[in-house]
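To close the section, here is one more complete example, presented without commentary so you can practise reading it yourself. The ligand is adenosine-5'-diphosphate.
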Amino acid sequence: MFGADGAALQNAGGDAILSVSGLQKAFGGVQALSGMDLEVRRGTVTGLIGPNGAGKSTLFNCMSGVIPPDSGEVHAFGRNITGWPSHRLAPLGVVRTFQLSRELGRLTCLENLMLAPLAQLGERLLPIFLQPGAVAREERALYAKACEVLEFARLADLRDEYAENLSGGQKKLLELARALMLDCELILLDEPGAGVNPALMKTLEEIIITLNRDQGRTFLIVEHDMDIIARLCDPVIVMTEGRKLTEGPFDLVRRDPTVIEAYLGGVA
Ligand SMILES: Nc1ncnc2c1ncn2[C@@H]1O[C@H](COP(=O)(O)OP(=O)(O)O)[C@@H](O)[C@H]1O
Ligand SMILES: [Mg+2]
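Output:
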């Protein structure tokens, strides 16, 4: 699937494991999604870009069970998952990273990872586990796995550090590490580059590439930083005004006059 130089080949990837069709979502008078279509093919690192207000976050929220769409459908791994809450998606193999909440900030990195699978039981039960010492009583398998993931995510030295004390980049690593505790094939990342210094971004990119190439995990990444998109993603999907504008390798997409116009329109 990858060329000798490591670059993803054009149109790489297998069957569509995530597909969105005709998705609509309005907030009052604002049509955030107006017939969005999208497919993510197995084995790809697919990028999702578009000017501010294009609907990227709304799309992510509708795909990952945060808010239900008004109409349209979301399918993953052959199932209609429209409107499913996030804790039902993980067992199916779909997970998205979430910004660490204030509560999780008061837990250590190790505790955050050990909690990740338990959090899938649903938010209703989560408070039971959000007590000091609660995760320490959890079983060994979970502990062993958390240590393995900490090592992989290069967070081993920070295992007993409180999450709220981590730098922006380290928090992103921890968010991804939490997702890895769930063994999902498809990982949705919302702006992995935001607030991350270049050195840690390089680490994060290496981890994403390893997860993709060596472990066969598929990614859908929303990102503002075009350098990150250029390095990681193929194909790249461009959305504007709540729907898909075009899709293709970044080098082609960036030169597409309709894409340039969409971005300039956003600036004006
Ligand atoms: N919760 C909300 N309430 C009202 N309007 C919203 C809400 N979320 C998003 N919008 C509006 O929907 C549109 C798309 O927003 P968003 O999905 O955040 O775009 P992007 O992530 O691409 O910048 C924008 O006009 C935004 O103001
Ligand atoms: Mg957004």
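Once you have examined the tokens, check your reading against these statements. Residues 56-57 surround magnesium ion (ligand 2) (CB under 6 Å). The chain has two domains: 1-93+185-268, 100-183.
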